Records
---
Amino acid sequence: MLFPSGEFLFVYLPIVLAGFFLFARFAGVQVAAAWLALSSFFFYGFWRIEDLPLLAGSIAFNYFAGSLIQRAPEAPVSSRSVLILAISVNLLLLAYFKYSNFLLESATALLGVGVKSVDVTLPIGISFFTFTQIAYLVDSYAGKVRERNPLHYALFVTYFPHLIAGPVLHHAEMMPQFARSETYRPRVMLMVLGLAFLAVGLAKKVLVADSAAPFANALFDAAGNQSVNTAEAWHGVLAYTIQIYYDFSGYSDMAVGLSLLFGVRLPYNFDSPYKARSIVDFWRRWHMTLSRFLRDYLYVALGGNRRGVARRYLNLGITMLLGGLWHGASWTFVVWGGLHGAFLVINHGWRHLRHRIANRLLWSESPTLRPVGDALALALTLTCVMVAWVFFRAASVEDAAKILLAMFGSIGGASPGVAETGPNNWVWLAISLAFAIIAPNSQQMIDGRLRPRLERLAASPASDLGTGAAMGAT
């Protein structure tokens, strides 16, 4: 089931939501939590029921491993040994299902020896639930796990609003919410905010992302078997730049909204990333929960910035390469991650240089020229992001190179089969991009503007919306 589908919005969601609060009211909060966990398993199994044993087995294994790590003094083996074994099992499973054929194909190309591919189907959301549980294991080893209820753990991993498209959740921000009794009481204000997030997310996905998709598909589908000209290349890449932002941001808004209906607050995953004036700033705004995971559990584990400038830049590059591979088993994703790693290294290097000579630069101190510098920085950042998106979307590195050559090369003639690049399409794409750059984002509109108004309304004597204190408890 997709979030924007009728079967989800008008059948699954009302049944699960009603059952959650009815069970909480008449059977107790543990029954309600079990209902929500079972409903999340059903949601996952609806995609492909054969993957349910893998998800259930992964949850059982990691909870048991986490318990052994947490009980290190009484355990027959050291917590470090359990941690290494558990992480290895998780990564081996992920490698088998997601990367086995990629590794075999790469070995074939490198060694020139034919190797038969593995007949394996990628389980939905395996990267999300694997990384989520690895973080839990690492935090168990570090003594950071406080809430250990197995039902809440299963719900934390399977919770349907995030299971397929994120965000990447952290146990410390989720499991305590499932343990609070107020989570299981319906609150009108939360539902209003949740419906607002859900509506905004649906609009982003259905009205903008799905409308931009045909223009992007036309370019990237054509790139494999015909030439494209400069206008077509920029038109298709701009369309994909808009599509991926509104699609991913829309799903994240829908996840936040759906979760608020159940009284649970998910972390925000986007903060207007196309407003970024540097790649460093972009990664603070784009897929924020993945950036947090990569920073806390990979970059820091590699040594972070504690071992000198050269090692810091190497760690950045490795982190982004692996972050690219996390998105998909293809060299295009490796190149995408490598590009962002290189952009980040250049960005950090430039910041270091700028700090050393900033007082000598006229524009750095000039209020008049500062807006010009900001505009140029935004344009350069967005251009770098768009160049990287070409590799993220293209079917092969060769197709991506062909599109980039068209974007920055000579203007050719129109190509049959590529989407029409008329003035109306350009205007629509430009407006969609401008809205992402200029307009307030969903949390600014809903949490920043709508929520205070609801709280003021709730504080009035005649209101039945609940209390501001109850709202703040989320």
Note: The radius of gyration is 24 Å.
---
Amino acid sequence: MLVIILAKLIGMLRDVVLANYFGTTNVSDAYLIAGSVPTLLFYFIGHSISTAFLPMYNKVLHSKGEKAAQKYANNLLTVSLLLSTVIVVVLMLLPEIVVKLFASGFDQETVQLTSKIIRQSAVSLYLMTVVSVWTGYLQAKNNFIIPASISLPRNLVIMASIVCAATFDVSALGWGLLIAYIGELLLMLPFVLKKGYRYTPIVALGDEDLKETLNLVVPIILGVGVSQINKIVDKSVASSVTVGGVSALNYASVINNAIQEILVTGIITILFAKCSEMVAKGLHDQVKSKLSQTLEVMILLLLPASVGIVLLAKPIVVCFLSRGIFDEASVALTSGALVCYTIGLLFMAVRDTLVKVFYSYKETRITTITATTAIAINVGLNLLLSRWLGISGLALATSISSVFHCVAMYFLLRKRIGDYGSRIHLQTVAKASLAAFVMAIAIKAIQFFFAERINSSMIELLICVGAGIVVYGIFVVVLKVPVVNDFIRKLRGIEKS
């Protein structure tokens, strides 16, 4: 989690640099869409295969041994690269058509710029695909730190390319993306080799393990990629709402996702790896216990975080992004979208967790149906709410669809594996909500008291966040939230020993 926090802070710094040099302009819109295209397609191929890889690799490893597992990994990687070739060719030859699909509201100048960046960075899809399989391999070998840290060199290179683009020529944006993903690959390579992985090109389309993986991949594309698909839908509609709308949504989403990734992504990553291993060994009661504890921690952390972001959206945006040409209009657009995204923050995190557990059981039919329905709800609400609320309406539509998706997944998983602590979860929600309510009163009191006394958004933010953490922490202890009680007992046990 410490590595993820550092990586996410560097990632946010990357967006600060982009906002400073390009604000919410057509250049930033073009760059963000161009970067989103291979990322979304990576989710369609690379991330989906990586998600299917982990439970399948554990299955092959425990049933057939290390040699068979290596062969399976090589076969999957080779086939994945061949599939990636089709998409790379399309991106190289028909980028304008792709841009129109992802951002229908762009004018011709922005389309041309976006297409140029896509052509420059299209080959990065190969690199993402390799990294995704290697990520699953390292996680299967209980190495979580390297997969969590690979974004560090990527974001450093991207920041350098943004500065070069603003100083010299915008062409640096596309080449920067390509070099950034090369940096990811080079960072991961020695650790993959150290774990004993050796790549040998294999194409065995008749292999039963490969067939089972590919059967899992198609529904996983929707289940795992639902967040990315929703973002692309949001950005496509935003491109026709206002100039800079794509950028405002992206900045708001980055801040919102940063909180989730800092607080819970490490937990979800390890949960998926452990659940896949437990399922392969038939330890189903341990899966339910691990999942219940994970959801308790998420509720405890993300509920107050959501309340805090809603109350402090404007100072957060000002502190992180209000530099250079990022003006008051940009702050208003971004902070409004941030509030609406944050409404669904807890639900998005729980949804992603439940989806991973379904995949540990190689159950994809339910996730496909619920994901498809959630995407349809998001599209419908986008068209409706954007007319009334503009950019903020798009973010609100994503949150509402996430609430539906999360609730549906919760009860469907309960039906699939049995109860996994719903009574405890309700208790945690009730007590954490009460503590967060008291925290909100404290934050509003501080804002009112210092309204005319503090002219710095940074100081206001630090005081409010610090006070909020203290107040919330005191009240979850006083209210005896179950997971907090367990943590305190463990601390006392360590002290006695």
Note: The longest helix spans residues 26-64.
